[in-house]
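I would like you to sit down with the record closing this message with an eye to the fold:
=====
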Amino acid sequence: MAPAAGTDLGYTPPDGGWGWVVVVGAFISMGFSYAFSKAVTVFFKEIQEYFGASKSEIAWISSLLLACMYAGGPISSILVNKFGSRPVVIAGGFLCSIGMIVATFSTSILQLYIFVGVIAGFGFSLTLQPSVITVGKYFLKKRPMANGLAMAGSPVVLSTLAPLNQFLFDKYGWRGSFLILGAMLLNCCVAGALFRPLGPTASKKKKEKDPEKLNKKLTEPEKSKDSENEEKEGCLTRFNKVLDLSLFKHRGFLIYLIGNVLMFIAFYAPIVFLAPYGRHCGVDEYSAAFLLSILAIVDMFARPISGIVANTKWIRPRIQYFFSLSIIFNGTCHLLCPLATTYTGLVVYSVFFGLAFGMVCSMLFETLMDLVGAKRFSSAVGLVTIVECVPLLLGPPIGGAIVDATGDYKYMFLECGAIMVFAGVFLFVGNFYNYRMLRKEAKAEQKGQHKELEMKEGVLKKDDYSQVATEEKPKNGSEIPTTKLEEANGSGHTC
């Protein structure tokens, strides 16, 4: 099994201490980021009736929110690399809050798309990415467990928000509920304040670079065309430091990216339509909303337990396979969902779905860091999220269109299950191929190094022999010094 990618961060992660406070902050910010798009589905039926929209049109609210949350990943990564995680998360919390508060004055479904989907969604991208990155900076040996605990924030917040949203709707309607939710999102600003910087800062790097710039100005002549080309290359290298595009040449990263793009087409649609499916089966509103709470409660325990299991010596070297099997398990749950037509069946489905969903989510970023290493992780997260925003944007509306066309939710669940199983199988096979190639490349590199050493030794021997020969050879080419002959025959006498 190939080893995990290196962690060349320039310092040793503390694996504890203030890191556990950072995990609490990430728990809050990631909880709101991931859970919010699922929790607002409780309002969808009423909003749909209020604006006279179809199921596909109403699903665009969650899709846009998720897509903007992921599409803002590169911008979030760039801001984190420049300013650090703390100010970015605080700014994201304010933006989410503003989006939800302004959404209370919406008079059309298009305005909800803009305020909830785009503005709040982009705010969540500023709270999500820095949380993931900061946890990775504070932990190394205990990283899978720390990520699992931080990711558990999503089910905890979801299990609270789902019934709370139904209660708020009954008391204040969807507009008043959005106003209260906007105020609650300011907790992300508090979470961001806990992200104390760790490791080399950007300001230090700048101070190191300033003397070099002064020396160059004093020593270099006037710029020519060649120097202009060097400047362009310098811009590209500076951009790559902020967002490393060379990752698209990384085999493991590409396998992860393709598999996740396939998976995210079907990843969130079952959650978006779980409560509506419950109502379709004749379940009352509170019981249908409680299905999300059941899913979230199981997910709450599944994430940290999965993180602890993944941190064991048996699973961690094979964490990519564990991730692939979790996705296959998730897809299998969706394929069996149409068998659940009663509330008991829906509860059983929600339990298994929560378990599978928690397993996948707890490994989502850990497997990426395992492939690319902690140093390139910030760029990798940004690049992955910008690509994944497309399937996230299209997934729920496609599911809604299937429901509108067929009048039955079971075909949507079957479609999602088939895609998830295919994505899991692709990742399993792709990672098996990647690990096999890494072993071959490591063996070839070892052989190449061995050959280089042998060649160097051979060259050194030849150089020694030629040096001795030139020293022994007389200038006229006919006489041999007696001292050399004495050394050659090993005696102290002349021949």
Observations:
- The longest helix spans residues 410-472.
